[in-house]
């Protein structure tokens, strides 16, 4: 099923406002979905006989930079029966606070593979997935402070009271 | 919002400790294949729940990739799945070449060499998997045999690239060096030597009655569960689906090469059990040997080495892809290896690079198929998943 047909299918099912935009400039066209509807959209695309996007290849959290102040999640879906791929994107503006995280709905109830991917996005970028059953850190220790893949992350000076030594020119905290 | 997942986890462990037994397997347990910690809630010998704890080998791949150029990241990519560095680098390089739009200009000889070394590396990786699987469940000899034959492959790859495991051999737009003189002949010798060794290995391990008893009908992974959990590679094929990205996406020169996709058939038990997954790897070694022979045919005939051939001729001087985001996937030795790039069109450094490691997704399913089984069977399941912690933790 081609991109336009999928767009039409989603618009018919959920209304026009579920698709807030599209990116067709690159090699892989992407649909931009209204963030609060993403789980419904994924469920529909997974179960609809015309699409069968049953395999979530990749889920990536993205921080769009300090000037954009925007956080997003990118879903790469694969349909095993039809051998097609689709990219879905959601994003919202957020003031980069680490106390009040950007919130998106979880898709781990639709694709179980999203479970760890969402934990990773939470761990590294501080994106909160509402409805996730077990949103603990996965790669970093449980008591880690901050979210390292964010663009404004400053490397910690201490870990558990021990000073961390960095090389003189610290590339990892650059903007 | 308040994230109370950690408190809920502590509470669950505290409650389980009063009723059941908490058993920590790892992080230094030899059968967890690296530094992986599995927290088991057990009732006697029966496992009620498996809670994996990853991250002991986290090396900030994504953060590093955001501060290094595409070319400089290749050594880091090698260190993800350190058992099949060539395939990791191959897929990364293909992704960048596609973004630059030079993927059609790569000389055929370069592409064939890339496939040749990737498949050699895939054999080496599967040999580790099969050998350590044997050792996990009590067979010591196959491990030594596998390592003996893997050593030949590593020697050849060292001859070509200069290092045994982490090669940095495949570069964007070309190769580090052409193959050394005599490599093709030596490789052919190895293929001839290795074929009977696989027959021996099958007699010793794959069809061994003790091995079959330990693995058949253990850890059955139904196909729908495998797909929903994002399992790929031999895990997915072991559950009976012919899904190989080398055929689905037809990248590189794989469309010109003839090979089959092995799948689990449930010969010794049910489709998708541990034996099937191991068998898929054994069969894939045979298919990789076929691919290698076809590559060698081409490399020795129409794509023969010429004195003026320069594998670095197409190397771009500045690697600045135009602004776009791109997901490149390919068949690593463990499954679907994907890289998600976001390029901003201005710099040589990716704005965001995310790696989707097959081990990360394959291991996740252990929580599902590890329920209600004996502890000894869990060891069999871990071995059959064949993950590399370097890729899981990145």
Task: Please provide a brief summary of the model.
The complex is a heterodimer of chains A (175) and B (394). Chain A is 19% helix and 27% strand.
Report what the structure shows.
The complex is a heterodimer of chains A (175) and B (394). Chain A has helices at 3-14, 38-47, 114-125; strands spanning 19-23, 30-33, 55-63, 70-79, 84-93, 103-105, 128-130, 158-159, 162-163. With 175 residues, chain A is of the alpha/beta class. Chain A is elongated and about 55 Å long. Chain A starts with a helix and ends in a 12-residue tail after the last strand. In chain A, 38% of the residues are buried. The mean pLDDT of chain B is 88. Chain B is built from 16 helices and 8 strands. The longest helix of chain B is centred in the first third of the chain and has 29 residues, at 108-136.
Quick tags:
heterodimer, A: Beta Polymerase, domain 2, two-stranded parallel ribbon, 9 strands, 27% strand, B: 394 residues, mainly alpha, three-stranded antiparallel β-sheet
Q: Quickly count the domains of chain B.
A: 1
Let me know the largest β-sheet of chain B.
3 strands, antiparallel
Structural class of chain B: mainly alpha
For this structure, the quaternary state is heterodimer
Helix content of chain B: 40-55%
- Per CATH, the superfamily of chain A is NADH:ubiquinone oxidoreductase Nqo5 subunit
Q: Please give the number of β-strands of chain B.
A: 8
Low-confidence stretches of chain B: none
CATH class of chain A: Alpha Beta
Task: Based on Cα principal axes, name the global outline of chain B.
Answer: globular
Write the layout of secondary structure elements.
The complex is a heterodimer of chains A (175) and B (394).
Chain A: H1 3-14, E1 19-23, E2 30-33, H2 38-47, E3 55-63, E4 70-79, E5 84-93, E6 103-105, H3 114-125, E7 128-130, E8 158-159, E9 162-163
Parallel strand pairs in A: 2-5, 6-7
Antiparallel strand pairs in A: 1-2, 3-4, 4-5, 8-9
Chain B: H1 5-19, E1 21-25, E2 37-43, E3 46-53, H2 61-65, H3 70-78, H4 85-100, H5 108-136, H6 141-161, E4 170-171, E5 174-175, H7 183-206, H8 209-215, H9 223-228, H10 234-238, H11 245-248, H12 274-300, E6 324-331, E7 336-343, E8 352-356, H13 358-364, H14 366-369, H15 375-385, H16 389-393
Antiparallel strand pairs in B: 1-2, 2-3, 4-5, 6-7, 7-8
């Amino acid at each position: 099923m081609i991109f336009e047909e999928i767009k039409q299918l989603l618009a018919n099912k959920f209304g026009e406002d579920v698709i807030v935009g599209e990116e067709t400039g690159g090699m892989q066209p992407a649909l931009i979905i209204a963030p609060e509807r993403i789980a419904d959209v994924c469920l529909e695309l997974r179960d609809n006989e015309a699409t069968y996007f049953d395999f979530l290849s990749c889920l990536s959290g993205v921080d769009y930079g300090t000037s954009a102040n925007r956080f997003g999640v990118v879903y790469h879906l694969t349909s095993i029966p039809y051998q097609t791929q689709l990219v879905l994107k959601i994003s919202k503006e957020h003031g980069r606070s680490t106390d009040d995280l950007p919130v998106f709905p979880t898709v781990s109830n639709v694709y179980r593979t999203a479970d760890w991917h969402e934990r990773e996005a939470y761990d590294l970028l501080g994106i909160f997935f509402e409805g996730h059953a077990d949103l603990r850190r996965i790669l970093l220790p449980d008591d880690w402070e901050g979210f390292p893949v964010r663009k404004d992350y400053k490397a910690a000076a201490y870990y558990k009271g021990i000073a961390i030594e960095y090389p003189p020119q610290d590339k990892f905290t650059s903007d | 919002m308040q994230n109370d997942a950690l408190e809920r986890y502590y509470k669950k462990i505290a409650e389980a400790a009063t009723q059941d037994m908490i058993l920590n397997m790892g992080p230094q347990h030899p059968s967890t294949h690296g530094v992986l910690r599995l927290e088991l809630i057990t009732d006697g010998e029966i496992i009620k729940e498996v809670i994996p704890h990853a991250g002991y080998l986290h090396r900030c791949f994504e953060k590093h990739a955001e501060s290094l150029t595409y070319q400089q990241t290749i050594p880091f990519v090698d260190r993800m799945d350190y058992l099949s560095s060539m395939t990791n680098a191959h897929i990364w390089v293909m992704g960048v070449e596609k973004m630059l739009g030079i993927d059609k200009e790569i000389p055929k000889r370069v592409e064939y060499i890339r496939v040749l070394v990737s498949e050699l590396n895939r054999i080496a990786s599967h040999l580790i998997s099969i050998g350590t699987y044997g050792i996990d469940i009590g067979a010591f000899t196959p491990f030594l045999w596998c390592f003996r034959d893997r050593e030949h492959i590593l020697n050849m790859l060292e001859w070509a690239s200069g290092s045994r495991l982490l090669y940095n051999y495949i570069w964007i737009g070309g190769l580090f060096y052409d193959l050394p003189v005599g490599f093709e002949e030596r490789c052919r010798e190895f293929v001839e030597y290795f074929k009977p060794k696989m027959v021996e290995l099958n007699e010793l391990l794959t069809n061994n009655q003790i091995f079959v008893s330990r693995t058949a009908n253990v850890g059955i992974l139904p196909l729908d569960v495998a797909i929903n959990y994002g399992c790929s590679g031999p895990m997915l094929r072991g559950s009976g689906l012919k899904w190989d990205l080398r055929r689905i996406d037809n990248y590189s020169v794989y469309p010109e090469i003839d090979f089959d996709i092995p799948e689990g058939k449930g010969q010794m038990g049910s489709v998708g059990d541990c034996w099937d997954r191991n068998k898929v790897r054994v069969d894939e070694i045979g298919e990789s040997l076929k691919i290698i022979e076809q590559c060698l045919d081409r490399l020795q005939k129409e794509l023969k080495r010429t004195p003026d051939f320069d594998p670095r001729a197409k190397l771009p001087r500045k690697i600045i892809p135009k602004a776009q985001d791109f997901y490149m996937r390919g068949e690593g030795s463990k499954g679907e290896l994907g890289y998600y790039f976001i390029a901003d069109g201005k710099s040589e450094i990716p704005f965001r690079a995310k790696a989707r490691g097959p081990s990360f997704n394959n291991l996740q399913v252990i929580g599902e198929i590890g329920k209600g089984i004996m502890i000894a069977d869990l060891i069999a399941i871990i071995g059959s998943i064949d993950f590399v912690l370097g890729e899981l933790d990145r």
